[in-house]
Fold this sequence. Notes:
Layout: E1 4-10, E2 19-25, H1 27-40, E3 46-52, E4 59-66, E5 72-75
Amino acid sequence: MEKKFYLRGYKGKVGFPILFDDAIYSFEEARDKAREYFDQIAPLCKVIIFEQGNGEAERAARFIYRNESGKPQEIGDWWENY
């Protein structure tokens, strides 16, 4: 079963996405693309990488947010041991 990953980006505490990237990526490509978006979109505060397998419901695979120094920081390192 092949996993597919796509991105949603959020501004501050807004509950709805301001970035919809529905392109299908590998996990590493999605991580790289999320970091690119942080460089390109100034108000972007967090990006969630969603995972969806064939016939499965989507779920959040990685949460990346802009930390106090303005750099992207990741939560969800469970993937490396998966």
